[in-house]
DNA sequence: AATAGGACCTAAAGCCACTATAGGTTCAAT
DNA sequence: ATTGAACCTATAGTGGCTTTAGGTCCTATT
């Protein structure tokens, strides 16, 4: 049988579309296994790790938290188990994304209103500064919804 | 003339709707001035600081970064100056919010598709795990747009 | 074989905007 | 005088990386 092809951390990172440090970080937090090393103590990876890293990056692109990714990876590692939990994780994430969109939309509306009313004069009569000074000038008292809005 | 009414950090925080530590943090990073102290070294605030803190909290609720708030505060402190820069900051922020909404909407669509296709069987045939494993299964190759999407 | 420079190594700090913890002091009410 | 809440400072933790510092190793060219 022939030798497995292996590649460096730089090659792995560029194939997965992330940074070298990010790979080391994932190893550190246990998302990626500790890889083999060559004689000079440098990491050598196989295509299995590339697939795993791609899964991680893709899940992160979807906005799943690292902890969610950890769970999803655990499930991907056990193809015979039922997938209800993966389903639940995805559904919850979808709900969070939808909630975030709603909050951001309310925020956008307030910002639009604010910007539209600025006539471009002095700060004293600027609607932007005025609205920021006085919460009561917002359409919905808590319409833009606190710091949560920007998460 | 009569003495100015002053109040404690706890009263200030609760009137502004934030935490006590947050007030101290804003002082530390220079958004709030160092206040007077009483005989026991405790901070005493005036309504001027309450107004300033309210402005800060409200701006943060609007999603402005602390650095943007710092600039906005500087402008609020100079009512005679032109307000173009405040206007520019708000417009830029509005654009960022709109961009974020777009990215989140694409993300939501992909998530919906993914969740809808999960039939609830074993992990092996789960669409969620499958889509996460393989970027090509997304509608738009870069539709949900990388980590930027979730900011 | 020597050398240059890019890629790799570890460990630790930095980012944002707070939040939490630890261990002590002061205030206000009883 | 005592109690317990609120205050004080300093430091660490959060998430998910990114950056920096100070080195070692690999590979291509001379």
How would you portray this structure in words?
The structure is a homodimer of 151-residue chains. Chain A has 151 residues and is mainly α. In chain A, 56% of the residues lie in helices and 3% in strands. Chain A contains 6 helices and 2 strands; from the N terminus they run ααββαααα. A two-stranded antiparallel ribbon of chain A has the order 1-2. In chain A, strand 1 (36-37) and strand 2 form a beta hairpin. The first copy, chain A, is elongated, with a radius of gyration of 24 Å. Chain A starts with 8 loop residues before the first helix and ends in an 18-residue tail after the last helix. The model of chain A has no long low-confidence stretch (mean pLDDT 88). At the A-B interface, helix 3, helix 4, helix 5 and helix 6 of A face helix 3, helix 4, helix 5 and helix 6 of B. Chain A binds a DNA duplex (30 and 30 nucleotides) through residues 8-10, 19-22, 24-25, 29, 38-43, 60, 65-66, 147.
If you average the pLDDT of chain A, what whole number results? Answer: 88
C-alpha end-to-end distance of chain A: 52 Å
Global shape of chain A: elongated
SSE order of chain A: HHEEHHHH
Strand proportion of chain A, as a percent range, falls in under 5%
Largest interface summary: A-B, 57 and 58 residues
Indicate the percent of residues in helices of chain A. 55-70%
Major sheet description of chain A: 2 strands, antiparallel
The number of helical runs of chain A is 6
Widest β-sheet, arrangement of strands of chain A: 1-2
Please state the structural category of chain A: mainly alpha
| Assembly category | homodimer
Low-confidence stretches of chain A: none
Question: Using only CA atoms, what is the Rg of chain A?
Answer: 24 Å
How many E strands of chain A? 2
């Amino acid at each position: 049988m022939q030798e497995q092809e292996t590649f460096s951390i730089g090659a792995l990172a560029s194939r997965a579309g992330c940074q070298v440090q990010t790979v080391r970080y994932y190893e550190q937090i246990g998302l990626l296994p500790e890889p083999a090393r060559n004689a000079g103590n440098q990491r050598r990876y196989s295509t299995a790790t590339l697939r795993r890293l791609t899964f991680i990056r893709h899940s992160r692109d979807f906005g799943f938290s690292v902890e969610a990714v950890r769970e999803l990876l655990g499930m991907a590692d056990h193809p015979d188990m039922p997938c209800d939990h993966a389903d639940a994780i995805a559904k919850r994430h979808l709900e969070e994304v939808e909630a975030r969109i709603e909050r951001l939309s309310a925020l956008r509306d307030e910002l639009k209103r604010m910007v539209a009313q600025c006539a471009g004069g002095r700060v004293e009569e600027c609607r932007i500064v005025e609205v920021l000074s006085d919460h009561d000038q917002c359409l919905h008292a808590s319409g833009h919804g606190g710091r949560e809005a920007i998460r």
